[in-house]
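anyone seen this seq b4? input:
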Amino acid sequence: MRVFFIMREYINIIVTTLLLMVIILAIPNCAYSQQITVLQETEISEKLPSSDSADKISSHDSLPKITPREFNICTTPYLSSSKFNAKQLIVPGVFMVTGIIGALDNDNNLNLSIKDAMTDLSGDSRCKVDDYLRFVPSAAHLLMGSIGIKSKHNFKERFLISATAHMAMIAMSYGMKYTIHEHRPDMSDNHSFPSGHVALAFTGAELLRMEYGNIYGTAGYVIATGVAFLRLYNNRHWLNDVLMGAGIGILSARIGNWLLPFERKLFKINEKTSSTASVAVTPFYIPKERACIVSINAIF
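predicted toks r here
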């Protein structure tokens, strides 16, 4: 009976994760909700009235004078996506409310059953890949546009969005960690809620989705979900910690995007101009310490 119970909980987790990913990817990105038509000078000349009718119109002063310069609009379809939309709070809100409910329930049987199942699955082994995987989506969001992959923002704007998102993520996740004091499943400390690893991974995954589209976003969410699973597998977090971390990550990425218009004004960045960046990635390996170091230098 216990085997069937564990299998049922695995299936519930997988189905819930897949449904939430479908919801995230199905909600249309408002970056494509509005398309601005740019009129070229030849099109404007065809729409302008003839000389005779223009004299009649100008004599009555009924219409303002129109010049091609007024229609020479240079913009990107992603600019509208920086505006706040309450619907974008639904998905992270579901994660966060579910995580809070689980944290308030001291006799959470689901948490205990998943902990027991993961202990049976892992035994004494631990997989530390999540310590490195959590950085992959965020690094990809920042660097992919600099290696030729089409992005919706230039490097400066991606840097501002990423910095703001990660500052929001750190403030929320670590603020809760040192306020709620929930013990970890392995009882190593009392900073379990929420999962910082998962929050970081989901921040990068949502940044990837917003910047490069659903295909790259799906890859980011697969990595983030893997990090969440490994935090449970390594007996470092409860299920509610992971759900709260995912909600914080998604919300933080969207906060970074919402604040971009204000940061453009603050740093006097003109969205009509493009920016090029030079990025150099240099890996190092220290044999004595058995450590790998990656140096990233960016000029923009």
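Residues 155-180 form the longest helix (26 residues). The mean pLDDT is 77. kinda curious what u guys think
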